[in-house]
Amino acid sequence: MKNIVLFGPPGAGKGTQAEKIKEKYDLFHISTGDVFRYNIKNNTKLGVLAKQYMDKGDLVPDQVTIDMLSDVVEKNISVNGFIFDGFPRTQSQAEALDKLLTKFNTSISGMVALEVDDEILINRLLERGKVSGRADDSNSLIIKNRIKEYYSKTAILKTFYQRKNCYFGVDGVGGIEEITSRITNVINNL
Ligand code: ADP
């Protein structure tokens, strides 16, 4: 199996690139943000819980996120591989992911990290907010909180994957196709 973690701060372009990569390598795309939004739309118990955190730009608690992710992986374990988009976002999520994949005799092939400056991120998210209708894209205070969450809880995962020799940084500024080809250059060598 080829299992890719697509990593980067909010607004780095993970969702856009995941769509391209999943087609090219026939991988199963899991976006934790999308699964939460689907649950919010359908007013499920999980959705009601997640919304309280997401609307403020806070991370949803680890155990809730891990349980949800594990469920999706277990239900789809016969695929060629996964693209994890928006997961893991904390050290304990990363540890849980390793454990889960080990259970199925597989592992993370590589973390591909989209690198984009904060100023560009904030502008991209505000632009997206005009069309996406996402509550968490709608004002700069919430956006700043998401970026703060990223630096305080998520950014350390760079070291976590570097220690396993599977961290690959990619310049996330440029045209969509250009960035896709930077990512495929990495994935082709995994
Ligand atoms: P973005 O990458 O643009 O911030 P996402 O759609 O990936 O957007 O995530 C939106 C929100 O969903 C996050 O701000 C967070 O509240 C919640 N979320 C998504 N993935 C996770 C996760 N792995 N752990 C905790 N919360 C998450």
For the largest sheet, list the strands in their spatial order. Answer: 2-3-1-4-5
Number of strands: 5
Strand content: 5-15%
Integer tally of domains = 1
CATH topology term: Rossmann fold
CATH class: Alpha Beta
Largest sheet: 5 strands, parallel
Query: What kind of assembly state do the chains in view correspond to?
Result: single chain
Number of helices: 9
Overall pLDDT score? 96
Can you characterise this structure?
It is a single chain. Helix 1 (14-25) crosses helix 9. By secondary structure, the protein is of the alpha/beta class. The chain has a 5-stranded parallel sheet, sandwiched between helices. The model has no long low-confidence stretch (mean pLDDT 96). It contains 9 helices and 5 strands. It has helices at residues 14-25, 32-41, 45-54, 62-75, 91-103, 118-132, 140-154, 157-163, 176-187, and strands at 4-7, 28-31, 82-85, 110-115, 167-171. The chain has one domain: 3-Layer(aba) Sandwich (Rossmann fold). The protein starts with a strand and ends with a helix. The radius of gyration is 16 Å and the shape is globular.
